[in-house]
Every structure is written in structure tokens, then in C-alpha cells.
Specification:
By secondary structure, this protein is mainly alpha-helical. The chain has 2 helices and no strands. It is elongated, with a radius of gyration of 16 Å.
Amino acid sequence: MALQEIEAVAQALYEIQVEARSWEREPERLKRRFREEARAAIAALDEHHIRHHRSKSAQPL
């Protein structure tokens, strides 16, 4: 997982929050929480992508 990818997803998750202010002004502990959520989301999407492609390749022609 690239750090830029994690940061972009973390910021996106942050921005959809109801009372989101400015990412740059938030404390590091809050950013850390969103980065952890971003890593989990990216990992879940990666796993889904892998399973989807495996199931497609297992289908007969």
C-alpha cells in the first residue's frame, strides 16, 4: 500500500464526516485513526478484487 494512497483515502473518509473541518489542522491522533480506517478499506477492496478475478478465471469458457 502506498502512503499517498492511504493518505488520499484517509482524507476522503475524513471529509465525508458531518463536522469535518480542515484535514491539515486536525491533530495527528485523529489523522492516525483515519489512516487506520483507510488501510482497512484498501485491504478489503484489494481482497475483493483478488477474489473477483479468481472467480472469473475459474469459470469455463
